[in-house]
Amino acid sequence: MTDQYSFRQFTDQFCKSVGYTPFYQVELEEATTILQLVKNGRGASFTPETSVNLYEDKIKHLKIKNGQFTRTIGLLKHKYSYPTKISQAFVNHAHAYFQQMTAANKKTF
């Protein structure tokens, strides 16, 4: 991704912290295009696990094991709006999903 994306900035900071400087041959803004290039054997990419279809047989997702490699994601809602059933269901689902993901990641360290 281009350096305008927070994930790219985050990745660059992490690489720098471990003494590695990635050499980017291509910078794209579309995650699906990046994954398609990787799928076709045209390179490798730092990609959040949540954006990769783990059942894709031509892509191998490797986890970086480092206890200090974290990312914070927020969920915002309007302070004065009435919460609809569907919006509350989404908030509940997102909360449960990330709790489950956090629990699974703690087991790998």
UniProtKB/TrEMBL annotation:
InterPro entries: HTH-type_LysR_regulators, LysR_subst-bd. SUPFAM superfamilies: Periplasmic binding protein-like II. Residues 3-98 form the LysR substrate-binding domain. It holds the Pfam family LysR_substrate. It comes from the Bacteria. This is LysR family transcriptional regulator substrate-binding protein. It comes from Planococcus shenhongbingii.
